Amino acid sequence: MNHRRHFYLYAKEHYQKGDLWEDLWRLGAHFSGVPQSRSSLMTILSDLMEEVVFEVYKNPRYVIHRFHGRIRTEITAYGADYDTGYARAVLMLLSMSPTGRDELDERFRLGDPDPNVLPLWENN
User: Fold this and answer.
1) How far apart are CA 37 and CA 92, in angstroms?
2) 111: enclosing H helix or E strand
3) N or C, which end of the chain is more exposed by having fewer CB within 10 Å?
4) Phi, psi (degrees; rounded to nearest 5) at 82
């Protein structure tokens, strides 16, 4: 199963959203085993970038265009700093990824959200 699956589940709104960076640190700490206190912003951004690279590999032109457009929108329209704009753009990209809980391909199998990672949305 995709060890970064909780980023996808978070992006697809299976978890309640609180503070963006706190949530991402908790998600990252859960799958890496590295305590939140020892994780860095760069670690989280690197983990997210690995998923972007995979998404670009699947559909390069569309993904790159959407990804850069979303970063620009987050910064100019919403006043986000670059790191926050980047993180939100990745989450937008992951939210649109054609993954599912029951996909046969190991890479796309997300499984169920885990209430021990973050609180679940009511619809789960």
Assistant:
1) 26
2) none
3) N
4) -60, -45
Question: What pLDDT shows up at residue 124?
Answer: 60
Of 30, 49, 46, 29, the residue nearest 90 (C-alpha) = 49
pLDDT beneath 50: ranges in the chain: 101-104
Question: Which tokens sit at 109?
Answer: 């199998």
- Domain positions in the chain are 5-98
Q: Could you write out the DSSP letters of every residue in 22-44?
A: HHHHHHHHHHH---GGG--HHHH
Q: Is 54 exposed, middle or buried (0-12, 13-18, 19+ CB in 10 A)?
A: middle
CB 75 within 8 A of CB 69: no
Q: What is the pLDDT of residue 105?
A: 58
Contact between residue 71 and residue 48 where contact means Cβ atoms under 8 Å apart: no
